TrEMBL record, chain A:
CDD domains: AdoMet_MTases. This is peptide chain release factor N(5)-glutamine methyltransferase. Residues 163-250 form the Methyltransferase small domain. One of its GO terms (molecular function) is methyltransferase activity. Its EC number is 2.1.1.297. The gene is HEMK1. Residues 43-115 form the Release factor glutamine methyltransferase N-terminal domain.
From TrEMBL, chain B:
Gene3D superfamilies: 3.30.160.20, 3.30.70.1660, 6.10.140.1950. Residues 64-113 form a coiled coil. The gene is MTRF1L. Belongs to the prokaryotic/mitochondrial release factor family. One of its GO terms (cellular component) is mitochondrion. GO terms for molecular function: translation release factor activity, codon specific. It is found in: Mitochondrion. The keyword Protein biosynthesis applies. Residues 245-261 form the Prokaryotic-type class I peptide chain release factors domain. Keywords: Coiled coil, Methylation, Mitochondrion, Protein biosynthesis, Transit peptide. This is Peptide chain release factor 1-like, mitochondrial.
Amino acid sequence: MALWGRMLWSFLSGPGRRGGTQGRAFSSWLPHRPPAGLLNATELVSHWTAVFEKRGIPEARESSEYIVAHVLGAKTFQSLKPVLWTQPLTSWQLQYIQELSSRRLRRMPVQYILGEWDFQGLTLKMAPPVFIPRPETEELVEWVLEEVTQRPGLAGAKGGPLILEVGCGSGAVSLSLLSQLPQSQVIAVDKGEAAICLTRENAQRLQLQDRIRIVPLDVTLEGSWAQLLLWGPMDLIVSNPPYIFHQDMEQLAPEIRSFEDPLALDGGEEGMDIITHILALAPQVLKHSGSIFLEVDPRHPELVSSWLESRPDLSLHLVAVRKDFCGRLQAVTGLLSCLFRPRFLHIQRSGPQRDCPVDARPGPQPTSVPY
Amino acid sequence: MRCRCLWGVARCLWLRRPAGSPRRYRSCGSPLLEELFAHGGPLRTFLERQATSEPEVRVRGRDLVAAAQRLSDKERELRETEHLLRDENEDLRKLAENEITLYQKEITQLKNQIFLLLVPSEETDANDLILEVTAGVGGQEAMLFTSEIFNMYQQYASFKRWHFETLDYFPSEIGGLRHASASIGGSGAYRLMRFEGGVHRVQRVPKTEKQGRVHTSTMTVAVLPQPTEINLVINPKDLRIDTKRASGAGGQHVNTTDSAVRIVHLPTGIVSECQQERSQLKNREMAMKKLRARLYSMQLEEETSKRYQARKIQIGTKGRSEKIRTYNYPQNRITDHRINKSFHHLETFMHGEDLLEELMQSLKDYADYESLIESISSQN
């Protein structure tokens, strides 16, 4: 029986199966198989929750709910049709849940296990080691959308802004901006090949590929920005750059440390390495009075502010700092305490523009990029 | 005092009218419309007063006065033509008959027009709505019934081509539903749906019952108008938004998948939650939608509670505790207790199509009628 199940599973979980098995061979050892007779969704969630809890897996209930819901074709357990709660599962569904859950036992993030996650209103493909977008970044996008709609100056001369995203990862920020700003165009850059591929794939899935240029580019390399000038001055730069202080990297949870690309997380000694590169590059590519929106560490607003003061030549000014989810309360040692984390920066450019070809908007993609 | 008498009379007349499609009573000169326009009745008095009063004291616009004038002209012409029916000349009699049919048609149209001009419009008429269903007395059986009712409204929304979005959904272990809410939008959605609020009662042998006994269980429906940006303004400072994100640095430092959001409106203590979506932002938007609808319906209730107190068809909180409808399976019957109207073919009814539509329309017509009588009485 077990052999039959295994054969069936290997057949069903062939390459390209939903959930992105990464070609990993089917594990011949099946730990924590639920006892016979446990066959419906609710019981399986309880079973796997208990297993995860016992093995110290964080978010045990959420993880098992997401896995079971995913196998049954829903995004969340709450959105599952009630019939499916109690309906017996087929043997391949049981096997599939078993396989996904065993990945969770190896601390793989749920987003990678499911092979997809939601950001703003979009469902995006997720694949290791490309950085998984965090909920805070949804707020960064919200802020950009607010500013673009409230200040027509930001929207650019042609109806929609030309936006540069540095470090696009899965494409979450770029694609949600594109989908909500129908006139906008985006140049998305990343130095990771996996990120470039994933952004491209997500853009195609969402049919947004016509308004996005996805460029492999390392902003830390001298003169790398030059090729961006081809598309003309940007109205906006958006980025969720790696901002974790290097010494904090060791303390990250195994889900992050062992699965996500450290290059998308490690911001150097003070978490400022990439931030300063973006700021140094900004005046070259940003139009006069263009804006930069960044997600940063709560310690960064001050550091960025003083760094900008030390670089008056950049003509950049920190104009606003925004906290994430306002008024969030958490139980800390039995008392409710308020946590506000300054998280987002709006930096604006002023002063004369340098070396920027005016009004060269994205045309046909150049075949070779002059350096 | 006089108001109460009028309502009593009106209600009796309405309930005594012959059975048939309720939609017909206004469109082809039903007894109700005839009674409403009876000579010497309150509506006539009201219309006469409107016609003779100075323009500036007229309660309603020129349209109403003009329609009332045309109505009385047509009625006079009809009476004059009726004499011709006794004429010796057969051709003339035939001509008169044709004329009379035309007059009657026109008169009915005018009465309908006056009726529609008089039914007061509500602030919420054009709003979208939030539907909430909650299982009541009866354990698992009540939850099963709640799930059926929720499906019925979902099917009705698609029947009407309205937008339907589930905001939250808490199923029970055996496939029932403890509580759910949905946002419904579309032309006239709230106008029709608002009369669904209240306690719905089911009588049947539950699936869980082994001895074949009939049980009575209940569930509650609440229909809250969805406020527009102008209808309701919330101060962000009055809100506390809780998410279950890890403490500490947040952002790139943690990877949480728990996207549940809980919003507390501090001045009222109203709590709104959502964990329907994987995106926290989406959950927050949905929770906010529900919260706004609750606050708005509270605000509306304060404004209108006095006006609605005497009405038979209640909406808002007061209506929520009232038993409005019974679904009796052994008798294959649905009865709406407010208008004492019964339907058969329960299963078809639960499909959320024509039969449900017909009942909703009856309720709406009756409510329109009540508010018309009310508005006339307060001005007479």
